[in-house]
Amino acid sequence: MESCEQQMRSVADTRGKHRISAELKQLEQEARFLEEVLENGEEKENRSYNSEELEQVDKMEKASAVCKEILVNTQTRPDPLLPETTGPTSPLWDRWFERPPDASSCRCWIL
User: Fold this and answer.
1) What angle do CA 92, 98, 99 make, to 5 degrees?
2) Does residue 53 carry a pLDDT above 60?
3) Distances from the Cα of 38 to the Cαs of 13, 82, 90, in angstroms?
4) Residue 105 falls within a domain, yes or no?
5) Which residues form the domain of 54?
6) Are residues 63 and 69 in contact, defined by beta-carbon separation less than 8 angstroms?
7) Does any domain span residue 69?
8) Does the global pTM surpass 0.70?
């Protein structure tokens, strides 16, 4: 039997140098990002908000009201890109979307 160390080497070798290098670079990038966040965190906490920004936020509608308005508008108006039909334009087209009368003899995997 192989030792645990030999097994780990064989697993590591199958990953490839490029993948290991990419993972290492990603970890280094994440570490740099976290260091920047820690350094700049104090500056961002001390930032005072502009009174104009706060006034704009106060004047904004709530998101739920806007979502309800969009929902009502989309449900009441027909889609201009879709043709308006109340039924099939030709009843012959329906046969392509129905199951065959004897479905057990159908060799189609979709149905």
Assistant:
1) 135
2) yes
3) 36, 52, 67
4) no
5) 1-74
6) no
7) yes
8) no
In the numeric block, which tokens belong to residue 14? 């199958």
Polymer length in residues for the chain: 111
How many structural domains are present in the chain? 1
Number of Cβ within a 10 Å radius of residue 69: 11
The DSSP output letter for 50 is: P
On whether the CB atoms of residues 99 and 111 are closer than 8 A, the answer is: yes
Cα distance between residue 92 and residue 111, in whole Å:
19
Residue 98 lies in a domain: no
Is the pLDDT confidence value at 82 over 80?
A: no
Whole-angstrom distance, CA of residue 99 vs CA of residue 111? 7
pLDDT at 72 over 80: yes
Radius of gyration in angstroms for the set of CA atoms belonging to the chain, rounded to a whole number:
31
The Cα 52–Cα 59 span in angstroms is 11
